[in-house]
Fold this protein.
Amino acid sequence: MNRRKVVVIFMQIIFLLASVYLVYKILRAAQSKEKLNTSKQYLPSIELRKIDGSIFQTDSFKKTKKLLVINYFNPDCDHCQNMVHDMFRERAILKDVNWLMITSNTREKTKRFADSMNLSKLPGVTVLNDTALQFIKALGTVSVPSFYVYNNGTLLRKHSGECSIAYLLQP
């Protein structure tokens, strides 16, 4: 065989191998995305920290009869602050709801926010830190504010952005 034929055959083999590799990567990415979407349908098992530093696990809410609202927030977010004001206005309908407010900010900043907004006066509200970003790893990209509503560990609805409390709690 002459040199030119060898080079052509070699290039065809390289092209074939590159094509197979790209198909493999695309299929694997699609499979990972599907797995992530399926896992988002159920309450993730994650370990977070309360403001006092104690450990908090989401598993305790997988079998509860109360609705669970997970609110991913940022203390500096105006929309997040507006939602807290709405929570106080709608306090009566929150009495039968567990509400987890999760942020990736420092414990000190989170405590200042919780204290300044009087969150301890809202029944069923627990403020949590996720500095290890476990929540984001479990649910993918999350904007602030984001809301995930669960019943018995199964996702009922999710919402990104400011919205009414009544919308979140509707059956």
